[in-house]
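step 3/5: co-fold with flavin mononucleotide
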Amino acid sequence: MGIRFPNSVGLAAGFDRYARFLPYTQRVGFGFIEIGTINVNASKTPDSAVLATLDNLKKATKYSKNSVQRRGISLGSLHDGLTKQTEADFANGMMLFWPYADYLVINLSRPNSPTRNPSLEPKALTSFLTNIKRDHSQFASEFRRYVPIVAKVAIDHECNEHIPEILLSLKAQQFDGAVIAFENWPDISRVADYVSQLKSTNEDFPLIVVGGIRSCDDIEQLMAAGASLVQVFSSLITQGPLRMQKMISNY
Ligand SMILES: Cc1cc2nc3c(=O)[nH]c(=O)nc-3n(C[C@H](O)[C@H](O)[C@H](O)COP(=O)(O)O)c2cc1C
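step 4/5: write tokens
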């Protein structure tokens, strides 16, 4: 992705949706954090959640100038389907949050996202991703700063047939990587097997892997399988910040 990360363990999206906990997550030692998901509606003025998040990010930029923690911003749309409206929501999100992001995430992992629908049309997906990437390139030249862009997709253990073609499409549209959320997988070694399978055909494409990580051994298995970075969410809650800090210090 062209970014230097202080370590390979990040805090997944959903924990700090409004960028309220940045100093605390820095202290736990996370190498990166994904703020959001922030749902933007392009046809309305920014709502109070969007404004509060922007405000928190502005403040954080001042007080954490020397922080090495990287910051992803996860963008969402509450419109269904891969439509012009959804595309406009993501474009609006990119425009608002560009100045505060080390990388941007197009979140296609929510439960009723079209990417999780068995009847997903590959052509519709490609055209949607092409348009998002076109908007992204335009902002990169307007802001005169390239911000890497990735998409987050979920892989349910029972339903994951679209993932290889989604990755191919992301790569073809020159996305900088993907966040892959593994849901309902029975154990981490099966996740690791699936990651190495994906890596065998996407060797040079960064994969950020999330879902079910509970220990250093889990992290090691996923990194050995080819994950570029990993993220945790539930373990911070179930194990607490001190154990998490210890776990991260190994990376
Ligand atoms: C309460 C809760 C809220 C979440 N919110 C988001 C979100 O807003 N955006 C997103 O991409 N993922 C969200 N997630 C998914 C997490 O980022 C992560 O992919 C998932 O929890 C699996 O990781 P874990 O097994 O370490 O918890 C959420 C998860 C939980 C439990």
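step 5/5: annotate
Residues 12-14, 17, 37, 74, 107, 109, 152, 181, 210-213, 232-235 surround flavin mononucleotide (CB under 6 Å).
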